[in-house]
Amino acid sequence: MIFKVAAFYRFAALPDYRELREPLRAFCAGRALKGSVLLAQEGINGTVAGAPEAIDAFAHELVRGDMFGGRLDNLELKFSTAEAMPFGRLKVRLKKEIVTLGDAAADPTRQVGTYVDASEWNALISSPDTLLLDTRNAFEVAMGTFEGAVDPGIGSFGQFKDFAAARLDPAKHRRIAMFCTGGIRCEKASAHLLARGFAEVYHLKGGILKYLEEVPEAQSRWRGECFVFDERVALGHGLRESGLRERSLLKQDMGPGRDE
């Protein structure tokens, strides 16, 4: 059986997020879905896997079902496949933030950077006056990144604001293009930089996964593999599994936790 995997997020006001936990968990459990879903007042973030028809029903419920009442209509959603179930169990957790930065001024529901589609990304990052910034953790960057990207050298996304304070200057870095696995960290990071006075902040819409899905390998500026927080470990162009599943040493060094 080939499993379908859905990675998704949406920044949206969910003041009733605590009450949504059990209905969402029951919906997933009733369709044998496994994976991780985070709910917070600022939105939803997660990755789940299961039978293709079950994943399709799940995606429909998030976007058009009664549970969220249309509040996730612009859900960022990406599909891929797995030869084996990539998760051991189902977790639906309540969090203060769906991706942890710890900056109250960084509110993606109010302002975010400019989205750049995968088809336009190469042109943007080829410009010499653009600072290309990888917002992911150091162990993810070590597995793969875009040519010429700056590695902030962080152990968790919560450290990004410290990196920005020490290394980025609104007067010097006039144009910043950032990227992450699925797009969610960039939304928070771009909101943070805009709040600090940076003028031009861009981010890759749909993240690396959307780029690897849409941009032909022959035209790609991506080098290496894209780490994902499940048992597939990493994906390549066309969102193909990389074969790193068997490298148990790497699995033991996945870092402090799931950021996307």
UniProtKB/TrEMBL annotation:
Full protein name: tRNA uridine(34) hydroxylase
UniProt GO MF annotations: oxidoreductase activity, acting on paired donors, with incorporation or reduction of molecular oxygen; transferase activity
InterPro entries the record matches: Rhodanese-like_dom (IPR001763), Rhodanese-like_dom_sf (IPR036873), TrhO (IPR020936), TRHO_N (IPR040503)
Keyword Protein biosynthesis: no
SMART domains (alphabetical): RHOD
Function: Catalyzes oxygen-dependent 5-hydroxyuridine (ho5U) modification at position 34 in tRNAs.
Pfam families noted in UniProt: Rhodanese, UPF0176_N
Ribosomal protein listed as a keyword: no
Domain (Rhodanese) ranges: 126-220
Enzymatic reactions: uridine(34) in tRNA + AH2 + O2 = 5-hydroxyuridine(34) in tRNA + A + H2O
Organism: Bradyrhizobium cajani
Keyword line: Oxidoreductase, Transferase, tRNA processing
A GO biological-process term: tRNA modification
